[in-house]
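Entry for the shared binder. Reason: the reviewer on the internal report wants the predicted structure included alongside the sequence.
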Amino acid sequence: MWKNSGWLAALCLVCLLESVQAAGWLGHLESRVQADNHYGEHDQFIQHWGEFSYEHNDNLQLGIAAAARVGIAGIEGQLQQAWLRKTWPHRKYSLLAGRFEQADLSGFYALDGARLEHQREQWSWRAYAGVRRQIEYFVAQTEKPDEPSHALLGLETEYKHKRLSARLGFEHHATNPSGDLFNLDINRQFDKLHLSTAASLDVHHHQIEHFLIRAQSAMDWSERPVHFTFSYETYQPLNPLLSFRQRFYRLYARGRQSGLSARAQYKTQKDDLWRVEGRKLWRDFGDSGYAVSIDWQSHKPQRWQSRLDCLTLADEKAINWFVALEKPLSSRHLATFSSVIQWKHSQLLKPNWATGASVNLKYKYQRDMFINFFAEYIAQTQMDNQYQLGIQIQYDFYAKRYRP
């Protein structure tokens, strides 16, 4: 059955590629054959992912992104994007409908709905409505009718002028007005200083739910600039129900939480890049702690990268050291070798040592086709060892102008 499924998937890939080219589409297509044991059992699968777009008369665009997977669990399929955009250039309006990607203070998500936009010189606005989705590796999270953020309605306006940009937005949740939010985002550029701030105000509770401020600056040292970044972020969920936004919030924990970070970046005369970053996290409920990272990159004569991370979160402690080398073998071959060492300790796990290595060989078969061979293995003292190996084909196609 596995062999028949694999041949069927390969045949579907060829037919799909020929059809989209013949129809005048352009886009990107990836196919992967892989074996691993990442989820505690051995698995083999064939996976296809494609992103296609089509433009007609410069006023009508169509986009599709889909994935298919054939493995031990059977055949899985997922439609990640399917949208249609209509533009009226003279009136400077555009309408987008279907399933499309969108980003705001709620995060990055897919919206099943519609969005109307208008652009006029420095001013622009957009109105949107729909249901948010989060898609990760064939697992889709969709807002449900009993969640406080179901049936989203939003309105945003933005102003840009020289070194200043400001965006004001409002989100209304039709099934639960207590989840309504005002969003504000301001960016200001000075000579050697860039300031940005963002905030979300809960309309029902009259309290700030999310606040972020970031400052970026550059100072000359040994005739080369050193870039500094400082940021402070705080988040306090005000609704006892866990919303769609909170399920995917990167610092989510019950109660108020805040984070302070500082980063310095410096490029030497040999073009080596150094980054040092420190973070401090406070939580009302749960563990507080800090993290420190040191990153080094070198591009001559081959590309080296090394990163050291140290994390302490009460009883949770982890140290990671990662090293990678990217080296061209010929005009068509590129090799990447990576290794990692990790020490981790927690209340639920004894001190665990993990060491791993990976190799990736990339071959340029044609101008727009690449073939990757990859393999990795991770050995651990307190957990099961992991492996992964396979082959991946990437293809970019650019169709001729098509007029039906």
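Summary line for the report: Residues 1-11, 240-252, 400-404 have pLDDT under 50 and may be disordered.
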